[in-house]
Design brief:
The structure holds two protein chains of two kinds.
Chain A lengths: L4 E9 L2 E9 L2 E6 L13 E5 L2 E6 L1 H14 L1 H12 L4
Antiparallel strand pairs in A: 1-2, 1-4, 2-3, 4-5
Chain B lengths: L1 H5 L3 H14 L6 E7 H9 L10 E8 L7 H12 L3 E5 L13 H6 L4 E3 L3 H10 L4 E8 L4 H14 L4 E7 L2 H10 L7 E4 L1 H7 L5 H7 L3 E3 L4 H16 L5 E3 L11 H10 E3 L2 E4 L3 E4 L3 E3 L8 H4 L15 H5 L31 H8 L4 H9 L1
Parallel strand pairs in B: 1-2, 1-7, 3-4, 3-5, 5-6, 7-8, 8-9
Antiparallel strand pairs in B: 10-13, 11-12
The chains are: A alpha+beta, B alpha/beta.
């Protein structure tokens, strides 16, 4: 739950500017980006996601380093990905 | 020593290790608390204590949201969930936390409608899909997760949903740190500040620690090198006689935090006069509840919540572990009666709990080997 997981913004949902489709380790899900409304991310940019909300923008290097770290953590990250996979935010 | 070899940049880690050792004053013992459970996880996973001189000790703090939920709140949530009109929704981490009569998982196995969700927004969706049911979200966590609950409530309000509510257990990190600073049990030399919480609240709320208590604080990232770098920054402050708040995790944490998130929390929630923390007892102004304007989303007002207080099991020493007074393996039931499969205390439940982290990585650190051989 407390893991911040990096995701790449793919696209915004039509008519719902707060929602964006992101790619997290190959899992594509919709998250809320409303907390970044002061400086919204663009498609191709990376965000750190907590429980379905993007909490901060990060650069690609940080995203790669964070992913490598999370993949090293193992089980806790796998469980987070499984939970994300079951998420159906709309 | 598999974990120690595993992480990248081991050369840099050794270099930092040498710099830390170079700053140690002979005869002085240094104690730093890592507040956040995510840091505890990294420290055990990578055996970081073995990179530190013997005079530098890391103490694990209360920053594990699941760990600090008192048993009474679990019992209250179970009471809510038992209402046949209710669908209880919860993060996975919370599912195994034991109350007096078992956990959410146990209740679910017996037929209670409790559903695991990834996000409060998933809980909101369940409410939309089940208009004849009342959907309650078991909200837990520090300032990292509070904005998501706040944003979800704002969304529910905008949609006019009337079958969705929050059982609010959000806690705030600063009063817990203050309680630890004021506790006579522990003398600390500085803090490794939480990373993701600070993404939301920024670095300013820690300034009183440096100013009023004279202790340095370094907000840190989660990778092994981040933590070693932060310990070096703490040691450097001490050696130069400084006590300041520094940000090692600038690549993610802005000094002022996330203002949109803080505004959403402030709009929907307010501080409770006091809240019970497992192990730490009642702490003033240390938790959040729904504001009166959002009372229609407050499960504590919508339902009859018993508000029970339950003493922690006698054998369990989570309180001492959460305060950093005891190391996980010093607890009487660690690894025997209390394991991740059958946890007695919360610290064994969450992967961020000090006991679970220590148990799962099952490693004997140098210090631990020494203590065992001396006992």
């Amino acid at each position: 739950m407390c893991l911040g997981i990096p995701g790449e913004v793919i696209e915004f949902l039509p008519d719902q500017p707060d929602l964006a489709r992101v790619d997290v380790s190959g899992v594509r899900r919709v998250i809320n980006v409303g907390l970044l409304s002061d400086d919204p991310p663009k498609p191709g940019e990376w965000v750190l996601i907590h429980v379905g909300f993007a909490l901060s923008k990060i650069d690609e290097d940080e995203a790669a380093a964070a992913l490598e770290f999370l993949e090293g953590i193992g089980q806790a990250y796998e469980e987070e990905l499984v939970a994300l996979q079951e998420s159906m935010i709309e | 020593m598999r974990f120690v070899d595993e992480f990248r940049n081991a050369d840099q880690a050794h270099a930092l290790s040498a710099k830390i050792a170079g700053l140690c004053e002979p005869g002085r013992h240094y104690k730093f608390m890592e507040v956040c459970g995510g840091h505890t996880h990294t420290i055990y996973k990578h055996g970081l204590e073995d990179y530190l001189p013997e005079s530098v000790e890391l103490v694990h703090g209360p920053g594990c949201p699941v760990c600090v939920i008192p048993m009474g709140r679990v019992d209250d949530a179970m009471h809510l969930a038992a209402n046949p009109d209710v669908i209880m929704t919860s993060f996975g981490d919370m599912m195994r936390v034991p109350g007096s009569n078992g956990s959410f998982f146990d209740a679910k196995a017996q037929g209670t409608d409790i559903r695991m969700v990834y996000s409060p927004l998933d809980s909101l969706k369940i409410a939309r899909q089940n208009p004849d049911k009342r959907v309650v979200f078991m909200a837990i966590g520090f300032e990292t997760t509070a904005p998501s609950t706040a944003m979800t409530v704002l969304r529910a309000a905008a949609e006019g949903l009337d079958n969705f509510s929050i059982f609010c257990n959000h806690v705030t990190i600063v009063p817990a740190i203050k309680a630890i600073l004021d506790s006579p049990d522990l003398r600390l030399d500085g803090f490794i500040g939480p990373g993701h919480v600070s993404t939301v609240i920024g670095c300013r709320p820690y300034e009183f620690i440096a100013r009023d208590y004279g202790k340095p604080v370094v907000v840190a990232g989660f990778e092994p090198l981040d933590i070693l770098q932060s310990i070096y920054m703490l040691m450097l402050q001490l050696s130069e006689g400084r006590s300041e708040v520094e940000n090692q995790y600038t690549r993610v944490v802005p000094w002022d935090g996330n203002l949109v998130a803080l505004k959403a929390i402030g709009e929907t929630m307010e501080l409770r006069p006091y809240f019970e923390w497992r192990g730490l007892g009642f702490i003033s102004h240390s938790a959040l509840r729904m504001r009166a304007d959002y009372a229609r989303f407050d499960a504590e007002l919508l339902f009859d919540v018993p508000g029970v207080r339950v003493a922690d099991p006698k054998a369990c020493q989570c309180g001492e572990v959460l305060k950093g007074v005891l190391k996980p393996w010093e607890c009487k039931v660690f690894g025997t009666a209390c394991t991740p499969e059958t946890p007695i205390g919360t610290c064994m439940v969450s992967p961020e709990g000090a006991c679970a982290a220590y148990y799962n990585f099952g490693r004997l650190s140098r210090k631990r080997v020494k203590e065992v051989s001396n006992s």
